[in-house]
Amino acid sequence: MREALASLRRSTASRDSAGLTRRAGWRGRSATSAATTSLRSRTWRRWRTSTARSRGSKSVRWTAGSGRGSVRSARTSPGAPNLLPLPADAFETAMTFEPRVDRYSRITVKMCSYSVPVRFIDRRVTVRLTDDALIVFDSQREIARHSRLAGRGLEHVVLDHYLEVLLRKPGALDRSEALHQARTEGSFTAEHEAFWAMAKHQLGDSEGTTALVRVLLLHCHQQHADVLVGLRAAVELGTCSEDVVVLEAHKAAQAAGLAPTVTATPPSPAPPEPPGPELPQVSHLTSRRLPQPLPADGRPLPRLEQWDELLHLRRKDSP
After folding, report:
1. CB 100 within 8 A of CB 108
2. What share of the chain is helix, strand, coil (3-state, %, to 5)?
3. What is the band of 121 on the pLDDT scale with cuts at 50, 70, 90?
4. Does pLDDT of 188 surpass 80?
């Protein structure tokens, strides 16, 4: 028994001494490996720097205490003259959707509803959504534009998108959401309110609202400020005739230089013609219906020579 215990102690002591020897040898090899790795790293960095400088394409800056190099700048490059220039157009970052217009003439994008013209009901449209705007296209033609809504379940409707329906159903205008938003945004102004009140007083609720809708359709072709001038003139004259609003709006557009009509200098007065037989005077129905005469029109007569030149062009040559 004593001999077995003595042999066990001798084997344990030999294993412990071997472990110490192995650990000591490992420490020596670790120190040697670290020195070798550091030397190789410095050698590789010097070779990489000299290679980059000899090529002349990039300048490499090494960070102290780090084995990695960072590219500082591309100073000269042999292939730079062969590169194409950057495109002039900005990079498009908008998201694209293709929703279908529902029966209420609205589309839903990102849990928000936006209106489109009623003629596009039950059709697919293309939507480009940016950080602040939403643009709706039918093929390549823009049909609506909204400010992007920042919320969930919100809706933005434009009154002009529903005018075609309101011509047939004028009673739906009074309490509509489109009219409420137009008043809030300021596009339905006090001039519209005054004209609407006068039209309902003269023609009744249904016919007066229809007259207002016809006037609102002018915003699709005329500037907003010009239509307001026509509405103010119609209210001052006490008439709800659409012709008066159109005429005064054209006058305001031409006074601002926005009308396409080309005017010429007034010609010299012609000699008076000899008196002939008296002809019956032609009276205009519009002037007879007005309680007050229209203001004088001081615009010069339009020049028609440019329009006559189009008569000599064939169909293929016409622009």
Report:
1. no
2. 45, 15, 40
3. very high
4. yes
